[in-house]
C-alpha cells in the first residue's frame, strides 16, 4: 500500500450524533491551529484529504463529516475504504452523548419556546425508541472509530486534548481524581456520581463520650468502623470506585464525585469518607476529601 502522505500529516475526521458537540470540538481544534471544515459531505472526504495533502503539507487538518444528509453513513464508510486503499492517514473520531443529554440540547437549540425539539414529539418513551434506532444506525461507523468521545461528561477543551493526543500518538494524560465529600441529609443531599447513605451504621451521637467528636477523631472512627456493616460496605465501595476510575479516565472525565451522607454530616459519613480516602490512596488513586458541614461551620468546635 502506498503512503499518500509521505510528510506524516494525519487528518481528523469527526462524525457522530447530532447535538453531540462535533462543531464545538472543531472550533477548539481550529483555535489550536488546525485547518478545519464543517459539514463536509462524505463522498468528498477523499478528494478533500488529497487536496490538503498537496497544498498544506504537514499542516494539521480536521473536518466534521455530515452524516445527516442524503448520503448518510454508507457513503462515509465507502470513503473510509477508499482512504485505506489509497494509504491516507486519518483518525476517525466518533462523538456521542446520552439520550437525555442529546434531548436537552435539542430542546434548547431547536425550539426553546415550546421545549420540543425538531424530530421529537415531546414523548420521552418515543424519543427513547428513536434514540435507540439512531444508535443502531450509527453502530458500524462507531465500531470503525479510532476514538469514541462521550460529550455527556467532558468539555470541548477536554475532548480537543484527547483528539490531539490521539493524533500525536501519545496518552491523553487524563487522570481521574476521586472527590470525596461527607454531608448531612438534614441539610440536603448533594449531587454526585455516587451518593451513599450510611445512616444504617449505628450512630456515635448516642454515645455520650463520642457525641462531641467528629469522624476524624480516632475514637469516633474506631466506633463507626468497628461495625461489620461499615467495614463490609467500605470494602465494597473501595472495589466499586477502583473499577470506575479507569473507565472515567478513558472518557476523559477528570473527577469522580463520591458523596457519603449520614444524618448530620459529623460522625459516620466523615469517618467513612476518611477511611475510603485512605483505602483509595493505598491503591494509588488520587483523592480529594472535603466535609461539607464542617466547612459550612455547622459545628463550631470542629476544625
Structure description:
The protein is an alpha/beta fold. It has two domains: 11-167, Rossmann fold, CATH 3.40.50.300; 177-295, no CATH class. The protein has eleven helices and nine strands. A five-stranded parallel beta sheet has the order 2-3-1-4-5, sandwiched between helices. The chain has a four-stranded parallel beta sheet with strand order 7-8-6-9. Helix 2 links the parallel strand 2 and strand 3 (61-65). Helix 9 (228-250) packs across helix 10. The termini are far apart.
Give me the strand/helix succession: EHEHEHEHHHEHEEHHEHEH
Q: Shape, please? A: elongated
Instruction: Estimate the mean pLDDT confidence.
Output: 85
CATH superfamily of the largest domain: P-loop containing nucleotide triphosphate hydrolases
Main β-sheet description: 5 strands, parallel
- Radius of gyration using CA atoms only: 25 Å
Low-confidence stretches: 1-6, 112-121
Order of strands in the sheet with most strands: 2-3-1-4-5
**Binned strand content:** 15-25%
What is the share of helical residues? 40-55%
Structural category = alpha/beta
Label the CATH architecture of the largest domain.
3-Layer(aba) Sandwich
Indicate how many domains the architecture comprises.
Answer: 2
CATH class of the largest domain: Alpha Beta
Tally of helical segments: 11
